Amino acid sequence: MKCNNCNSDIFETQKFCMKCGNKLVNGEGKQKSKDNKPSLSKKSNKKIAFAIISVLLIIIFTSLVLFKDHLLHTGYTFLASKYIDEDIDKALVWADKAYSINSDLEIHKKIYKRQYETTIENDPEEAIKYLKKLARIDRSNDYSDDFEEAYIIAAESYMDADIDKAVGYIEKALETNRSKKTIDMFRKVSIRKADELSEKNNKEEALQVLKNVLQYDDSDEIKSKIIELHINEAEMLLESDIHEAIRIAERSKEYGDNEKIDEFIARANVMLEEENEGERKIIPVSTEPITWDLVDSSSTLTDEYGTYHNYHICDDDSSTAWVEGVDGDGLGEWIALIKHDSVTLNKIEIHNGYKKSDKTYFRNNRLKTALIEFSDGSSFNYNFEDEYSKVDIIELPNPVSTYYIKLTIVDVYKGDAFQDTCITEIKGF
User: Fold this and answer.
1) In CATH terms, is domain 294-428 a member of 2.60.120.260?
2) DSSP-derived 3-state class of residue 365
């Protein structure tokens, strides 16, 4: 054998090389390495082992908790699904328990959707409640079509039992979606409502209901219905005031030509000839404003704040106004103040714009030019100044004997925010 340090011959039993003194290990010379580091102590090994075991225990415990929650959530969801068709209250109890573990509303969506589907035909009001809950928790889907359908079904279900409720539901459908089927139902409900009002002799309200429909549907059916109401109103006046009856019949021509109109006017004119009436008696005008018997208009605005009725024009209240109801600036729209007997008119007072405040005045359109007409055929254009505090007083050059004052919008001052043209008051003296 050789010493690995000096390569001298050595015996297998030697512990040191006789020549260089190198320590021999197992019969071979081996130099101690100065770079060898001591191994980890037993104490260090125990710490590492303890740390590893602790981490593993934490992972196992967390997994068990999560697995338990998963099992509970799955179980609660299963029970909620089981009771959807059997007991909705129980289904909701289990769904709420599932939600308390995992903020997942999928089972609630299924419950509300199923309840909507099962109640829509027999109980549309209850169905709408569930649909609202569904839409509230499911913002990712658009339920406007479902709401439209629900409101239409609800309106139809109440047509015979409660026409006012039917009107309310179909108006909500219109707010949701102005589709053809909604407008068709709106026309159907409005005609029924107008018929009921007409039977109660509230013909003015009935006319207003039908005229509101014209904003969405100018079909011949609605126009014929309006003409029919006008003719019925004229028939009631035929014995007491033929001139007024003829005027109402003539006004109904705005909604189209109709044989009933021509027949009525012809019959009324024959009655006039038979009575051989001369000039009708003119009622003297006092210094007090004229009290009008009827207010009519081509349109009226209804929005989320309410309806700006035409009768606001003579309620002596600056916080209200008539507002035309068509798209755009309302050019060509009109309003008329009507008397059953003729009056002598000397002056007209007009509160232009919406004078609830200077803010409402300038945010909406105001009259710039208006055509003013009377039943005797006379008319003139009047130009307004755009001043919030100004009240326009029009002194007529000669007294006019008339059954009405009709004002038509010719031109406007533009509003800062809205295109609706407003008039607060019109008075005649």
Assistant:
1) yes
2) strand
